[in-house]
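Q: I have 581 residues here and want to know how they pack in 3D. Can you give me a structure?
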Amino acid sequence: MNRHAATALMLAACSLSASADQPQKQTPDQRPNIVVIVTDDHSYQTLGTCEKDSPMPYPNFRKLADEGMVFDRSYCANSLCGPSRACIYTGRHSHMNGYLFNEHAAPFDGSQPTFPKMLQKAGYQTAIVGKWHLEAIPPGAKGDTSKYESDPTGFDYWEIFPGQGNYFNPDFITPGKDGKRVVKTEPGYATELVTQKSLKWLDQRDKNKPFMLVVGHKAPHRCWCPSIQNLGRAKQYADAIDPPANLEDDFADRPEFLKMTEQTLLNHFNVWSDEHLIKEVVPEDIQKMLSCPESKTLHTQYDWEMPEWVRMDPQQKEAWYNYHKARTVQLVKDIKNGKIKTQRDILLRRWRHYMEDYLGTVLSVDESIGQIMDYLKQNGLDRNTLVLYCGDQGFYMGEHGLYDKRWIFEESFRMPLIMRWPGHIRPGVRSSAMVQELDYAPTFCDVAGVNTKENMNTFQGRSLTPLFKTGEHQDFKNRSLYYAFYENPGEHNAPRHDGLRTDRYTLSYIWTSDEWMLFDNQKDPAQMHNVINKPEYAETVKELKALYGKLRKDYQVPEGFPGATGKLAVKPQWDCAPSRD
């Protein structure tokens, strides 16, 4: 052996000896991180990704869409906040995960399989901040409410709102050392606080592990409260846009039960807590003119019946009061000088107030998205992080004269969805594939490499990864989606109904009133004409009713669900392998 070879051999031996004595530097896990941003009641009509869905500029929504993929035909499975979230976490329909409606008889069963549990078990660090909303605390519940509570499972860290949460100076719940919940009031505005807490967790996490973070916003849920600094920022846009053509829908040529709904802007929108008028500056005769006699959502225990008022500090109250007082004074002035005379005039002004507050509330969400994306980029995480933005269902922006959600109509059934993952999801694409919130969980498991047969067989959705390249794929052609709504009796008196959405048609059976409805979305995108009994659709009706029966069987829907009346009890099930669509 020559001298150089011997020296090299000796150095190698020394190196091996040293490395054996010292701990090896851990290589960071290169599996993709996952950030799930979920808002409450964000309508696809105000998503903000292009001129078509942007009543006002939302630069961070626009940027996220330009860098990712927008799914133009994304749908929920149950258009209600809590049940929709249960579907997202489990990847299963409401009758399979057991959480049918808000204020359910029992809270969400956290023992069942969920995608956070699957990722956590596979070594992901997991967290949720903000809205959880899978409890079952009924209105007016007093004393010990622990039997109604549901703590997040599958999360290493959680800090959540109690129930619905508040916009101003909200409470947050964290687990205490003794296992009991710790509730703390935080000064500030909910959207901003959730963002700050989410970024703080990202800073303090274990940097050697991939992470999954759920950012749960309350916004833009009722009662549509913009932050103090965003008050009035949306007014010029709300004043400039045209109302929906069917704002004054009389519900003719559709099921009779629709006329019994209690979510119309004209008759059920609360002028104090929803429209934010200041009662004390409205003369009594004008109060009667403005009142919604059928409203059942009065908050008479609060000053001027504005539920967020009692959460505000003095400075917030002053700013909020002064802005809405000026708006109310202008309304009274316009009534007195004859600019507003009729019920139609009142409806139009009310709609503009609604749009101003709603769009202003979304502004803070847009700012939050910008802050989160900036953090990911500044910390070198943006290229290996899958970001999914979604609402929890759709929402009416005055279409059919309505606000809220619940119905299978397109405005509440369809929901926002944007996904971004550089190098994997083609940017700037708008996908027309039919997708559903049940698809998110299998998608996360797929990209995280935990797509075992055991995991994937619990889901009733399918992974969206085949759509990442172009937004279209053979597996998603001719796909039909199943929907069910259970909450009746309940707020807004929407009926129990289920149905399906195909590429062209929406078919639904209203169990509460034993009525069918069919919409040809190609010819009637506003869904103004029920064609269920039209002779020219007879063959289509026959085919769709057969498909409806098949979907119910494939998804293992119990006989008699969702039912017409009465209580429904169902235990979570997750043996879904035979029912994969």
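Q: Anything worth noting?
A: The two ends are 69 Å apart (CA to CA). The chain has 14 helices and 16 strands.
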